[in-house]
Amino acid sequence: MMCQLFPYAEHVTRWLEPEQQRAWRAYVRMQGELNAHLSRQMSVDSEISMADFAVLVQLTDTVDGRVRVLELARLLHWEKSRISHHVARMEKRGLVRRENCGSDGRGSFVVLTDVGRTAIEEAAPSHAEIVRTLVFDQLSDTEVEALREISEKVFTRLTTGECASVIARCDADDPMEVVSEESGCPEA
Amino acid sequence: MMCQLFPYAEHVTRWLEPEQQRAWRAYVRMQGELNAHLSRQMSVDSEISMADFAVLVQLTDTVDGRVRVLELARLLHWEKSRISHHVARMEKRGLVRRENCGSDGRGSFVVLTDVGRTAIEEAAPSHAEIVRTLVFDQLSDTEVEALREISEKVFTRLTTGECASVIARCDADDPMEVVSEESGCPEA
DNA sequence: TCGATTCGGTTGATGTGTCATCCACCCTGC
DNA sequence: GCAGGGTGGATGACACATCAACCGAATCGA
Which of A23, A99, B116, B159 could crosslink A109 through cysteines, CB 3.0-4.6 Å? Predict the structure, then answer.
């Protein structure tokens, strides 16, 4: 599972300044490799994928481990059909189960199972360790701050104005500040 | 076509400093959205995908528009089965064709067709424009430089030592400096 | 209260990436 | 010249993402 952008030649870079071109090529290669590496690592030393992990994280973030399907899609910025398919596969493996919603006959909940909880608890530590050694151990405090600012600027551009044309985003909450309450870390 | 990492909760971030946590979350969301946006844009205003684009770029970068299959995989950092499948699909759509290699009975070339050349020439300008407006118009010169340095550091970490365990990379060329000769931009 | 919309969610088709396996050909040692 | 292993590449099975179409429940306007 992968989606990579790739090395760019004159076709693209003619419209970028040389310095921008080098930055873009470096970024593109880095994020491709990093995604690939994290995915591979995750599926090697645990039985779940990055996508499973993302779903499980959201479920464990709620008090009772149950979230409505489309709420899940909104939290993850996924399309509803994607979440539906994915939950179906996870259900087949016992990581989650679906329950009907009493108050709304159309709706259903995705509920974390014990198997799912165990899976994420086993996967999380090594994933965090990998992120730290691959990324943050390489960067100075200044660079970490720069990474955040750059990411926020681009993300803001992506989610404002005519760019924000994707389905699941129309009613999304405050884009940058969705830190869980119990994470013990400040919200700002 | 997508591969996204997603919002992280305490599970992951417990092992990261608060400042690192914020940077990581911001980065993860940004690159997910950016990938999605670029892919969507590419497939909307041209008939090719980002992956097609990457292949076509490599082909147009050579003098005669023909590259050996595994050489292509090495240039793109793709697995050989991925390039094989992808070339097969592109061949079906007429973007490339395969030719036998005379000097090595096992090998084959991937050759750019006129259709393929037209496709990339139509796709490139708007893609470059999008990258510029979404990314570089948001960043100062200092930030562009920071982005490049951060990306290079992480990429270097990813491709050295025990991380570089992937098939297609074992004999890869100098990781960061594969700028095409005719791009008109300095190699360093 | 009844029809039209909207909303929550599923389904199936299609394109894509990965893994394991396989085959044909090359090369080297003998 | 031929047996062994290595290499270039293809294939099939599976997981995954997207799109369009669909369905039934909710809701809203008349």
Answer: A99
- Using one digit for the tens of pLDDT, what is the confidence trace for B48-67? 999 999 999 999 988 888 99
Q: Tell me the one-letter amino acid at A58.
A: Q
Evaluate if the CB of B69 falls below 7 Å from strand D: yes
Chain A positions in Cβ-Cβ contact with residue B130 (cut-off 8 Å): none
Tens digit of each residue's pLDDT (9 = 90 or more) over A44-84: 889 899 999 999 999 998 988 899 999 999 999 999 999 99
Q: What's the whole-model pTM score? A: 0.81
The residue among A129, A176, A123, A57 whose CA lies nearest residue B22 is A176
> A75-79 long-range contacts, Cβ below 8 Å, gap at least 24?
A75/A178, A75/B7, A76/B6, A76/B7, A77/A166, A77/A168, A77/A169, A77/A172, A77/B4, A77/B6, A77/B29, A77/B32, A77/B33, A78/A168, A79/A166, A79/A167, A79/A168
Is nucleic acid strand D under 7 Å from B11's C-beta?
no
Q: Give the C-alpha separation, B135 to A141, whole Å.
A: 23
* Residue B70 Cβ < 7 Å to strand D: yes
For B15, the closest of A36, A132, A182 (CB atoms) is A132
Q: How far is Cα A74 from Cα A52, in angstroms, rounded to an integer?
A: 16
Nearest protein residue to nucleotide D24, judged by CA and C1' positions: A106
Nearest to A51 by CA among A5, A8, A4, A2: A2
